[in-house]
């Protein structure tokens, strides 16, 4: 018996003594996933970023691509399928397909950022690829931001009190010297 070639679908003919049997063999190959750009650039509040997920090397053709977002708080939510391209077939019989996602930091309420994940559901199994999204210039302060603001306020208050005390003390000395001269 000859070994089948490296294509993904085979028509195997097996001859045993004087009988011939034809078998249809279908190979299932799960996709490999990658996200571009990786890592994602920092996003400013109100900015739109584009991410692309590329699924390649899979067979048979049926594939479902979707996106998810997991915030810093740990909660996940679906972002939809994005703009999915038509499939492309490679020389070895495998397929590739991609999905492009527009991340509008204002409309999607992404907070301070989190993890953006591309999910590929295929007969060969579910695959995931993730990248980190960082949103800067977020509108509400975090606990750390609030504590820093309180610290700065206390330092400024102390500085103002010190300067006020210094001028008040030196002003009373000048007034006292003026009274001594007048006498």
From TrEMBL:
Q: Which organism is it from?
A: Eleginops maclovinus
Q: Does the keyword Zinc apply?
A: no
Q: Would the keyword Oxidoreductase be found if you checked this record's keyword annotation? A: no
Question: What is this protein called in UniProt?
Answer: Ig-like domain-containing protein
Task: Cite the Gene3D superfamilies for this sequence.
Answer: Immunoglobulins
Check the record and name the CDD domains matching this protein. Answer: IgC1 (cd00098)
Going by the UniProt record, its keywords in alphabetical order are: Immunoglobulin domain
Secretion signal: which residues?
Answer: none
Q: Which residues cross the membrane?
A: none
Alphabetized PANTHER family for the sequence: TAPASIN (PTHR23411)
Q: Which InterPro entries match?
A: Ig-like_dom, Ig-like_dom_sf, Ig-like_fold, Ig_C1-set, Immune_Resp_Modulators
Looking at the record, the residues that make up the Ig-like domain are: 31-132
């Amino acid at each position: 018996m000859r070994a089948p070639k490296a294509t993904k679908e085979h028509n195997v003919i097996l001859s045993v003594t004087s009988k011939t049997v034809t078998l249809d063999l279908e190979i299932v190959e799960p996709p490999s996933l990658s996200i571009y750009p990786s890592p994602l650039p920092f996003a400013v509040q109100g900015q739109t970023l584009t991410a692309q997920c590329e699924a390649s090397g899979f067979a048979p053709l049926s594939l479902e691509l979707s996106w998810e977002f997991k915030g810093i708080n740990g909660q996940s939510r679906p972002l939809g399928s994005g703009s999915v391209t038509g499939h492309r077939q490679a020389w070895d019989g495998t397929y590739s397909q991609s999905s492009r996602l527009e991340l509008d930091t204002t409309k999607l309420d992404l907070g301070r950022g989190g993890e953006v994940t591309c999910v590929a559901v295929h007969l060969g199994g579910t695959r995931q690829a993730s990248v980190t999204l960082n949103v800067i210039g977020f509108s509400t302060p975090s606990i750390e931001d609030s504590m820093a603001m309180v610290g700065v306020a206390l330092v400024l208050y102390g500085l103002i009190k010190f300067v006020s005390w210094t001028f008040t003390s030196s002003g009373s000395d000048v007034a006292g010297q003026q009274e001594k001269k007048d006498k």
